[in-house]
Amino acid sequence: MKIFSLFKFEYQLGEGVDTMKLLIVDDERLVREGLKKCFDWSYYGITDIQEACNGEEALERIVDFEPDIILLDVMIPVISGIEVSKAIKDKLPSSKIIFISGYSDINYLKLAFKVDAVDYIFKPVEFDELESAIRKAVDMLNADTFERQYVKRETAKMETEEYTVVENDSGKLSTDTKFSSRIVICAKDYIENNYMKDISIKDIADHLYLTPNYVSLLFKQEMNITIMTYVTQLRMKEAIKLLKDNNLRVCEVADNVGYKDANHFSKLFKKYFGYNPSDFRFTQCAQQSEGTVSGVRMEQGVGK
After folding, report:
1. CATH code, residues 229-294
2. Fold match flag (3-141 vs 229-294)
3. What is the DSSP string of the chain?
């Protein structure tokens, strides 16, 4: 759940974001020129457009230009579009990627899904299909902007007398309960959308425009567990689901739930459930996993 949705903010296409920047990445000059001329981009709030003809040039533009929307061909020279998309999500996580490709390979589609691409459009590009993807990307950017604006306003209110944060005799934060609950809801939402990445408390706090200590205290007060314990519990729940798919190796399951080190994942998994991930697959615990995950086996003290 996003903050902006709690208050049913309404916006129209092109509002919310002052101006947006578009990067078109394709090795065919005629394709790039055609994409530049196929729309009145200013209607969508896009006022600055740049191009790149290969993956290396695209990465340079990502750093220097910082585009909001990227039209990205999958098969480009030097560095593939898929590798470029991974770099984009690392450097510009709020940007929106629309893949354009002449290939319908299911593996490309899966990889596009992993980097949260807005859409995957096949060549030759259909005008209506591209327009729909652009509208969706702009809507998502507008929504992100409204969310940030709302959090900033609410955070500013906390600096007034009405939202003054004090520490009471029990050592707990005293602030507006409704606002505190919204912050925790949005922290959980961010975690649920990003647990598969290497996220930290700072990442969560930065997303909410608050300090790590403040978010940690609010979360602990509302949920009675620490943020990183919540992250770990969510990862373990998702790992249970993925382990039921025998086509996935344990290292792939670990990577899909946010652990690059499969050994570290296996140790944590055993602390939670008493089984190594590989052993777990061959026990009846797999059928009983839902009850196990949500029950007493979830240890509060197990860390990230």
Report:
1. 1.10.10.60
2. no
3. --HHHHTT----TT-SSS-EEEEEE-S-HHHHHHHHHSS-GGGGTEEEEEEESSHHHHHHHHHHH--SEEEEESS-SSS-HHHHHHHHHHH-TT-EEEEEES---HHHHHHHHHTT-SEEEESSPPHHHHHHHHHHHHHHHHHHHHHHHHHHHHHHHTTSGGG--EE-TTS-EES-HHHHHHHHHHHHHHHHHHTTS---HHHHHHHHTS-HHHHHHHHHHHHSS-HHHHHHHHHHHHHHHHHT-TTS-HHHHHHHTT-S-HHHHHHHHHHHHSS-HHHHTTSGGGTTHHHHHHTTTS-TT---
Please state the pTM of the whole predicted model: 0.52
Per CATH, the number for 3-141 is 3.40.50.2300
Task: Quickly tell me which residue has 């709020």 as its tokens.
Answer: 94
Domain positions in the chain are 3-141, 158-224, 229-294
pLDDT in tens, 129-181: 899 889 989 988 887 777 777 666 666 665 554 444 444 444 444 445 666 78
Q: Is the dihedral of CA 179, 180, 183, 188 positive or negative?
A: negative
